[in-house]
Amino acid sequence: MTVTEANLAAKSLLESHFSSVEISGEISRFIRHGSGHWYFTLKDEKSAISAAMFSYANARVTFAPKDGLEVVVRGKLTVFPPQGSYQVQVTSMSLKGAGELERAFNELKTRLNAEGLFDSARKKPLPAFPRRVGIITSATGAAWQDILSRINESRYFLAKFYLFDSLVQGVGAPASLISALRRADEMGLDAIILARGGGSMEDLWCFNDEALARAIARTRTPVISAVGHEIDYTISDFVADHRSITPTASIVDLLPTYEELAQSLDAVQISLKSSIDFKFESARGKLKTAFLTLKSLGITQKINNSNLNLEKREIALKNVLSMKLFKFENALPKRGELKSKLDFKFEKASAKVASFAARLESAEQFFDRAKNLVCVQKNGRATKLEDLSANDKITLSSLTATRRAVITE
Question: Is the pLDDT of residue 224 over 50?
Fold first, then answer.
């Protein structure tokens, strides 16, 4: 038997007896080849085994392998004939303990969903034009830098942003996040963004904390969960008012674009102008109606009417007297005596006319002085000032204007 035959026989024997194995261990000497294949060693406290994972298989891995990471691999045992080396050919890889984490995640998700924490009816809408935004993340993390870059690119100048530095990984992260969330909620902000960059399920596990989920549900401020990448889901994503697929996307989701802001301002301007124009036209109509009403009831018009009636009566009286004088002069012989009597009566009548004219002139002077006087009405009826009480609603009318007022004391 040649060396090649021996290696091929060993390969066949291993693959036939160990065609499907599951091995857990720590990654070391990890190499990502230019071809896309991965080569590494799996080890535990006492032993090690070489491993290879080809590109078609490792394309399905959702985390980034690295030295020191505890994983579980599935595949087959084989021999690499050119070197006679024994190895495991890996077809799938998961983080060690990921199964337990997945079960814990699903159990908590099911329980909180049953309590109604994920219901869309309890979710608060995001503000159309936020003015004050809180961002909870690590001040030294890449997520914060990505968010700052997107804010600068957005050209949205109406908002102020407040950073709440927090742990976003590890045992102390849930308590740190809850504390930051409470402080942000007490500030009366328009929105809060909970952000962290991508990572393994273990790295993001603090966002699956039950206490944090309940703290998010209690906030008065709308909360955006922007944790990991698009394929990553955490409990905070489900309980928050809005989920963004990345920290950068949270700014895109929250802030309107410059063009949207300009269009909204134009719409507000048009609406405001239409409202003002309508109110002015309505006021003009009311003023015109009031003017016509006062004009029809005005004292000046009454004076003019009285003066016209007086002139008509004076002319009619003179005509009557002249006609009677003419008839008597032609009917009676003592025309001179009669004429004297009629002249006396005529003078007496003329004196009455003159007296009436004087009284009319006096009235005109009175009305001229009275044009600045004000009539007080309550419930449509004239009333005296001394009869009014505090909070009475009254109408004040003059010859030229009408106003409404409330008695204060």
Answer: yes
